[in-house]
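Help: read this over?
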Amino acid sequence: MIKVSDTASKKIIDMMKDDGFDATQDFVRVGVKSGGCSGLSYELKFDKQLGENDKVFEDNNVRIAVEKKSFLYLAGTILEYSGGLNGKGFVFNNPNAQRTCGCGESFSL
């Protein structure tokens, strides 16, 4: 399962609305791809359709779609939003990551 913090939920719902998506029907697609300074990087985008290999979760009024391959890397992750002095953006608190880069956008297992 992937959890969504209160601040991330509010930001996601606002951003989805701004981009023409409906948070009650559409999804936040979360994934992992090769790349980044630590070997793997996170992907986050809005989507209207599910794939046959997607797992779907709902937390804090946000529907999350994750392809099965990515889910192995993301199980237990908490998606948060930071608006602090270090910059604004989504933060993945991933208990599976053994090492992360300074920017928090990539990790390794």
Remarks:
- The longest strand covers residues 27-34.
- Helices lie at 6-18, 68-74.
